[in-house]
Amino acid sequence: MPAEVCWTKGILSTTACIFPEHVKQVLLTGYPVAGMWRSAAQQLARQKLHGVRSGRIASNFPLLRQVTTSQSTAHQASASVQSLDRASESDRSSEFKSGLRFLKPSTSSSPSSLTPLDSAFIELVDLLPKCWQSTSTTDFNHDHSKLQTPLQVFDSRAYSSALEEDELCDEDIIGKENEHAREALPNGSNWDTGLDADSLLEQKSRKRKARELHKRQVKIETEAWQQAATEYRELMTEMCRKSLAPNLPFAQSLLLSWFEPLRDGILEEQRAYGNREHREHRSMYGPYMCQLPADMLAVITMHRLMGLLMCDQEHGCVKVIHAAVVIGEAVEQEVRIFQLMNSQKKSKDAEGNTNSLGDVANNEELEATRKADLKSKKVVRDKVKKLVKQNKLRRVDSILKHASTDEPWSTVIHVKLGSRLLELMLETSFVRAPACQDGDDFGELRPAFQHKFKNHVLRQNVNRIYGVIECDQLVLAEIDQSVKHMVMPYMPMLVKPLPWKGFNEGGYLYLKSSIMRTQGAKEQRMAVIDTPRKHMKVVVEALNVLGETGWRVNKRVLEVVEKLWKAGGGIADLVEADDVPIPERPDTSDKEVWHKWKVAVSQAKRTNSERHSLRCDTELKLGVAKKLIDEEAFYYPHNLDFRGRAYPMHPHLNHLGNDLCRGLLIFADGKPLGPSGLRWIKIQLANLYGGSVGKMSFDDRAAFAEDRMEEILDSAERPLDGSRLWLKAEDPFQFLAACIDLRDALASGNPETFVSHLPVHQDGSCNGLQHYAALGRDRIGAESVNLIAGDKPADVYSGIAERVKIIMEKDALKNPLTSRNAASARLLQGQIDRKLVKQTVMTSVYGVTFIGARMQILNRLKERSPIAVDPVDTYRAACYAAKVTLDALGEMFKEARCIMSWLGDCAKIIAAAGHTVRWTSPLGLPIVQPYRKHSRHLVKTSLQVLALRNTDDNHPVLASRQRSAFPPNFVHSLDSSHMMMTALACSKAGLTFAGVHDSYWTHAGDVENMNVILRKNFVKLYKQPILENLLLDFQTQFPDLVFPEVPARGDLDLKEVLKSPYFFN
Predict the structure, then answer these.
(1) Domain extent for 252
(2) Which residues are tagged catalytic?
C-alpha cells in the first residue's frame, strides 16, 4: 500500500523509516495536511502503547513506557524537542526546505540502524498526542508561513486525553463517557493531573464493554428472526445427517416440523410471482413477500401466530384479522431492518472498493450516484422550505411522502400479505395424534390449525360473524412450553434507549418506535407531529429520564419462583399448572341434571381458558427474566398513550406488571441506605404485607416489621422451608425481595453503608380524587385523601363505607310497605365494608355510571355467601347499594363532583357541534380524544373477506363517548404531568426514579428526598390556573360555542400538601 494511503488511513508500520524534519515542520507550522500526520502519529503511539503493556517493545521505547506508567512532565517533552534541535542543521536543511514529502515504509530499517536524530524524533512522535492536545484548533487555521510553538504550553493530561479521543473517534455509543469522566477518576487523581495507568485501563475497559453491549443490542434488534431461521436450518441439517429426529422438546419439534414445509410453500409463492404467474391477490402481496428470504418469513409467521395464541382471550383461537395485521406489520418491520442493514453493508463494501487501488470506475460511479442523490434531495428540500414559509403544510406532507422511498405499507397490504402467509401455514402445518396402545398405529396426522367462523352476539337480534384460526388441542396443550423457543422482538435494551427527537425517532435503535401509541388515530398523530418541539421539551426529557433508569433481575427471587413453578404453581398468586377436570356427561335424561352439567362444563372450560392464558403469561415473564439474568443492567424505552401516561415499550416483564414482575426487578445501580434507608425498607415491608397494616402510621408500620423480624429473616434465609411469612403478604414476591434486602443490610454490620438495589414505592392515596380535590380546592375531600396532614393516613374507602352504613341503618328502620329501599337495606345489614365499595370509589374518578357501580357491587356480593334466596332480591340490593354509594361520594367530594360535571358539560357542547375534544396538558402535550363512529370497508384476501376499520378523521364523533371519557382522561393527563415533573426533578437531584402512574419508586435511602420533591411539584402543578387555561383553550378552538363558567372552588390552601406525610405513602 502506498505511503499516501497509509498516512491517510492512519496506518503506520513500527518499522517505517521516519524522517523527523517532515513531522517537525507539520508540528510547528500547521501544515495543511497535518491531519494525515496526526492520525498516523496517534496510530503509532497507540500501537506502541499496546506493545509496552504487553511487554513486547518496552526496551525499544523507554520514554513511552515512562509516560504510560507514571505522570509525564513538560520536562520530558522539552527534552525531546531539545535533542531534536541539537541535531545537525546540515542533516535536515535540504529536506526542510523541500517541504513535506510522503515517504514509503522501508522494511530494511530497524531500530538499531536509526541515527540519534531519528531516535530523538521517535520519542517526540510518542509524545505527539500531547502536543496536539495543547495546540488549539485555531492554530491550524492561521497563516502557514507563520511558525507556531505549541510545545511551550504543556500539561501532563494530554497523552491520556489524546488516546481517549482517538478511541472515541466515530463511536457515538460512548460519546457520553467524557461527560462523566471527572466523576470516574479514582481517589487521589483529578482531571488536571491526569489518570494513572490503572485508571486509563479501567476507562478503556468500560468503553470496550459499552461497544460490545451496543453490538449485542444491534444484533438482538436486527438479527432475531434470521438467527431463529438459521437455528431451524441447522436442526434440519443435523436431522438429515443423522437420519433421525433430534432429541428436542415437543414444542420445539412441532415448530421444526412446520418450518421446512412452510418455507418451501413461501419459496414456491415467491417463484410464482417472479414468473408472473399472477393469481387473484398475488399481484398485490407478491412484491412485498419477495422482499425477505423465505425462511425468515416462515419464522415470523410461525412465531407471531403462536405468540398471539399464547395471549388469546378465546382459548386456542385468534381472530384472522388480528393475526393477519400483526404478521403483516412484523414482515414490514423486518423488511425495513433487512434493507437498512443491507444498504449499510453495501455502503461499506463500496467504500472499501473506493479506497482500494485500481477501482476508479466504481469510485466514479459511486460519486455520480451520490451527487445525483444529493441534487434530488436538495430540490425537494428547497421546495419544502418554500412551502413551509407559505404555510402550505399539507403540500409539504404530500411531497415528503412521495419523495420518501420508505413509505409505510397500508393496512390492506398488511392483511393481504398476512392472510396469504396464514393460509400457507394452515396448508403446511400438521400434528400427529398420540399412537395407539398396541403400537401398530403411529397416530393420525391432522392439521395443526383450522380456519373457522364464530358467531358473536352483540345485542339482541344483532350478531357478528368473524373468522378465527383455531389450533389443535395437542398444540394448545404444549403452547405454553414453547415460550423459550419464541422470538420476542421488543426485549428490554442492553444499552440506554435513544433520546426522543421526533415522533418516530427515539427508543430502540432499529425497531419501529413511536413516541405515542395513537392506535391509528391520525388526528392525535398529526397533533403531536405539528407541535413545535420546544413546547414538548419537558415531556420528551421526562420520557428520556424514565428510559435511562437501569434494571436487573433479582436472581434470588427468580430462583424461588422457578422452584414454585416447577412444583406446579398454585401458590403465591401463581396459577395452577394443571387444568380442572371437565365433568363427565350424565347418564340420565333429567333436564335439570343436564342443565347443571352444561353449566359446570362451561364453568370448567372458562376456568381452564383463564389458566391457560395465565400460564402463558407467566412463562413469557419468566422467559424474559431468564434471558436477562446475567445482564448487569437493562433499560425500558418508554412512550405515551394519547392521554400522556408513560408506559414501557416492552410488554411482558416490566415494573408496570403484577407482583411477580415487580418482585423480579431491582435497580441496576445501588445506593447506600444512609441514616433513613433501613426504616423505609421496614415501612415497605408493612405496605406490601397489606390489609390494615398499610393504613397504620409510619412508626406503627416500622414497628410491625420489627415485631416480626425473626419471621422476616427466616423468610429471607429459608423462603420455601421456613415459616414462610412472605406467603401471607398481599404482594408476596415483592415482600420476599424486601425481606432479602433487609436481611442483607442487617448482616452487613453497618446498614447505613449497605448498598441497596431495592426499589421502594410511594403510592398516592386514591390519586384521581387527590387531583379532583386539588382542582376544586375541596377541603373535606382533601382530608379524606390525605392532602391535609393527619396523625395516620385517612382511608377514603372506609370513610365512604361508614357513610353508606349510616344511611342504610336509617332506611332499614323504615316500613317495607311504605319504603321501597327498606327490604334491600335489611338484606345488606352486616355486608357493608371497605371491600364492597372500594372498586366503585376507585372508578368514580373515571366516570363510573350507575350501571357500572351496580355491576361492581353485585359481583362483590356474589363472592360472598348468598344474602337472599331469590337472585332478584340480590340484584335489587346491588342497585340500592350502588345508588347510596354514589350519593355518599357526591357528599364527600362536593366541589370535585361539580368539576367532573363541568368537564362533562364542556365535552358535550363540543361533541354536539361535531368536534372531538382536544386540549393541551400543563406540560404542552396535545391530546385528542379518538372516539368516532368509524366505518368499515371490506377487503378480499386469499383466506376470507375481512372488514377493516376506517380511521379517517372525517367520520362523525361519538358524542356520548366523548362526554363520558373526558373527565377521567383529563385527570389522567394531570397525573401524568405530575409524574413527569417529579421524574425530571429527581433526575436533577441525582435520584434514580421509576414511575407507575401514581406510584413513584426510588432507592430506600432517597425516599425522603423524593417525598419532598413530589409534594413540591404537586403544589407547583396546581398553582397554575388549570381550569381557566382549559376554558380559554376551548374558547380559542371553538369561538362560536358558548361554554359554562368554571365552577366555584373551596378554600383549601395547597401548601398544606407540603406538610402532609401521607399524601404519598
Answers:
(1) 221-343+401-483
(2) 763, 838, 998
